[in-house]
Fold this protein.
Amino acid sequence: MPKLTIDGKEIEVPAGTNLIEAARRLGIEIPHYCYHPGLSIAGQCRLCMVDIEKAPRPTIACNTLAADGMVVTTQSDRVKETRRSIMEFHLINHPLDCPVCDQAGECWLQIYYMKHGLYDPRMKDEKVHKPKAVPLGPHVMLDAERCILCSRCVRFCDEITHTGELGIFHRGDHSEIGLFPGSDLENKYSGNVVDICPVGALTDRDFRFQVRVWYLDTTKSVCPGCARGCNIDVHVNRRRPHHAEGRRVARLKPRFNEDVNRWWMCDEGRYGYGFVDDESRITMPLQREAGAARELGWTDAMAAVAEALGRVPADQMAIVASPKLANEDLFALRTLAEARGIRHVGFRVPPRTPGSEDDFLIRADKNPNTRGAELLGLDGNVAGILNAAIARRVRGLIVFEHDLFDSGWAEADVRGALEAVDVLVFVGTNANATSARAHLVLPASAWVERDGTFTNFEGRVQRFRPALGALGEALPAWEIIGRILAATGGETTATRAEHWFRALAGAVPAFAGLTYQNLGDQGATIQQAVPV
Amino acid sequence: MSEKIFSRNFEVQGANTLPGYRETGGYQALEKARTMEPAAIVDEIKKSNLRGLGGAGFPTGMKWSFIPKDHAGPVYLVINADEGEPGTFKDRYLLERDPHALIEGMIIAARAIKSALGFVYIRGEYVEPWRLFSAAVREAYDAGYLGKGFDIVVHRGAGAYICGEETGLISSLEGKKGWPKVKPPFPAIKGAFGAPTIVNNVETICAVPHIINRGAAWFAGLGSKTQGGTRLYSVSGRVNRPGVYEESCAITLRELIEHAGGVSASGRLKGVVPGGSSAPILAAHEIDVVMDVDGLRNAGTMAGSAGVIVFDETVSIPEALMVVARFYAHESCGQCTPCRESTGWIYKMCHRIVEGKGRKDDLDTILDVAKRGAGTTICAFYDGAIGPYISYIEKYRPEFEALCQS
């Protein structure tokens, strides 16, 4: 392990660490554009210059590996002057259209100009003009004039997705990013190029012109789109709701987790949050009698639930849980089932079409918590439950989230089962064909509106946190289940998701020792040795 | 006049064919080299003081010795026949008139660096040199010089100056955009297709058979103390007899211009670019300089490709700079920022000055921008470009100021 000195501080780093990463470990930021830890070294932007003892001139830090005894200076006058020069070169042909640029506020040209530039502009000639507002694909828009040709996007498509749609065309100051003839930027991870673009050249067509980034609030979360559980930040617009016509979730961004998704996430997950503010959201408890639905408050709703469940003996009750529920919800549900003696509990509903999968992040299982549901022992036979309902051996059904009509099962069978039961309770975030047949519909808050944890396919338990208040009267599923438990004669002292998690960790060996504290921001793996 | 080595066959009818080349003693050096250990060949080249004749002037034998010893995979020999430096046209003569000298030199060099495959990267515009050299390669295959342990692939470039930069050339050879590569790794460690690679200029390799034939001491003695041999000077511009001249590396610029018939047009010398367009200009009073690598370096310029461009009194230096600046702005590959952005910017300023719309502070801006970009780029292109930017303005500033508004 080479030991080197950076700005007078000694540090030992693993062999193969470059100077940008070595400095980062010391809390020293070496400014850079083209370098990205997930991509190959390009050495193109020339901003990461540092002084190395005995070197005749400043050297790029990205392509210099830490060596034993190396003495590095990141703040010499010569380095500062070089950075200023490089910043000027980066900006001479830049359109400076910050007032209409979505990147403003999180633009590294702005940030580094303020930190390392601060020169008086000398460019008095006409700037080079290039194409603007060019759609590269379904999600990404290019403004070639803003581009600093760092080639991160090109390298991403070459090295990460291996799809190679992008190239740099032409030469000199007429160079520009573009698509190879006949291709569109429509790979399954295209949105990542917007994240890694350090300037406003690549913007997100979904996010463009929605809201200024400085009005956004950020919350650490986990993508619910598949069993991978990519770590994400949820960016919400609470402060300027009128800027985006009431759309609260502005965008999802991948959050680094070395063991899960590193810097990346797929487009399906990134743009999959639309249901949160969709018109189909259920915002009030609903009771349906003789085809007529009426909204009611939670107190009345719980009374109705208690009355309905009271009509069905426990051995004729069944629960179809959802692998979209959090561990906390599922444990609450397990508690409810045990308290009421409900033995028919399952969660696995086959999708209408098998989910697509790849060898990178995307998993075929489009549920975030299948593994959690398995670990909690809820993997009962849902098809058997439906058959029992058709045979009128099951008379009451509580369905979470699923639209059983949108599944791999025949529509007639589902209809037969749902029409046969005396009591159908639906708990979920959004209305669907199943909820449309429910006698009682209870609004659950979406994952961005609450606390909880998912267990990904590798057994990593990861927290998500509330970024928004619940819509309407929606409550977290664990809270709804707790209220049902209370309304049907049981009891719980859990008033927060964390209480349920604590109980879960105490009761399920795989989760032993896990707490919200030690899950932290990056999650923790279940006890692998414990048999399920 | 110095002894003719490189150009000895230039006027010999048929010397560019295999029988003609053999008549002049061709392929005898190869016979001799085949009796030598590879390390002995490298040693001989080191002792000859042969320095790269493409532009950088790096000692050839030392370059060869950078190939990792006991390397297991392939090693490539790449010949840079891209000859794009403005004012340089000597490799074209070698390819057309003495192609077998290059082939023989390559086979010997390949033995020295243990390479089984060589590439000759010929600039796209060189159609006739490509045709004639390719014919010679076919002859060498038919005669069994090639194809038995060493092969040559002839590759045509597509007209970009940057593909004459050794790693830009390698990128282009690999089928990629001709972008220079970030160093390290250097080509001798990881070059073409990831393998150790030596890139040499045409003329450099053409010297090899002569050195093997006649000995390192003989070759070293032809030149200066630190640079052996003669070399080919491409003399152009305002001289009475422009053309390719073979002279000792120890000749002075004044003698060279005299050999080329002296200054034409007005007859009064204004300045000379001694080593291709990237070499800083020498003023009329600075031409008593020895033309070897060190002599010109000490004079604040460079030997470069030995493309000597002579300006007489009637040449407008600002116009000349505008033309050169346009060239560099057009040819900058655009990969790294300082070069991409400032070559274009500087050209715009030069253009404006020539149009009479210059401001006095433009000159200081050009000088400052040029100096700030120096040494900050991936390759030597920009350091070459600033040669003219800085030297033309610093040495002929009143001429520029006369064009600028106050």
Summary: Chain B has a mean pLDDT of 96. The first helix of chain B runs from residue 18 to 23.
